[in-house]
Amino acid sequence: MSDDARARYFPWLRFLIPAAAAAVLLLSAGFAAPPAPAPAGQAQIERFDVKKGQVTDRIPITAEMQQELRKLAQSASGSAGTFRIDPPDGTVLHFPLQPAVEIRQRGFFALAAEAYLFLPADREPYILFFSEENEPRLFGLKHPVNRLLALCGWEEG
């Protein structure tokens, strides 16, 4: 390239390269940003990907979802002492129970205010409840989770 051509294009290159780099950074930051939270005061389900170590989705809870969450809560089947609250893979769904749901099991009674539904890749789903007094209790489930996942748009689990 001749000196004249270099002199004509060099100022543009000094401007375009940083501008292109800034645009790429802004776009990648926008795609990497966590999902936007639901409006204040609106109950939502959070989907946590264990492998990624982050919340990957948040959606508002509909009345139909709340009804399905109640069915799951009422299908809790005995203490699940062998399950892990830190699974190596899978998905964990966090949801509030509004209003609180009665959990009645042998030797346990509580009003559950929130729950974590564990969907490990190689095991049956299980659920962790927190009472209004913040007491945790882990249970297996009798009710299938497929309907809730379909309502959320997460059929793959």
In words, what does this structure look like?
- This protein has 3 helices and 7 strands, in the order αββαβββββα.
- The chain has helices spanning about 5-30, 65-75, 145-150, and strands at about 45-50, 55-60, 75-80, 90-105, 110-120, 125-130, 135-140.
- The chain has a 7-stranded antiparallel sheet, with helices on one face.
- α2 runs antiparallel to α3.
- Residues about 15-40 have low confidence and may be disordered.
Keywords:
157 residues; alpha+beta; 3 helices; 31% helix; elongated
Uncertain segments are 15-40
Secondary-structure class: alpha+beta
Fraction of helical residues: 25-40%
Radius of gyration: 24 Å
User: What would you call the shape?
Assistant: elongated
**What is the terminal-to-terminal distance?**
58 Å
Overall pLDDT: 74
Number of strands: 7
Main sheet: strands, sense, barrel: 7 strands, antiparallel
Q: Count the DSSP helices.
A: 3
- H/E element sequence: HEEHEEEEEH
Strand order of the largest sheet: 2-1-4-5-6-7-3
What portion of the residues fall into strands of 2 or more residues?
Answer: 35-45%
In short:
This protein has helices at residues 3-32, 63-74, 146-152; strands at 44-49, 54-60, 76-79, 91-105, 108-119, 126-131, 136-141.
Q: Which SSEs are present, and which pair or pack?
A:
Layout: H1 3-32, E1 44-49, E2 54-60, H2 63-74, E3 76-79, E4 91-105, E5 108-119, E6 126-131, E7 136-141, H3 146-152
Antiparallel strand pairs: 1-2, 1-4, 3-7, 4-5, 5-6, 6-7
Helix pairs in contact: 2-3
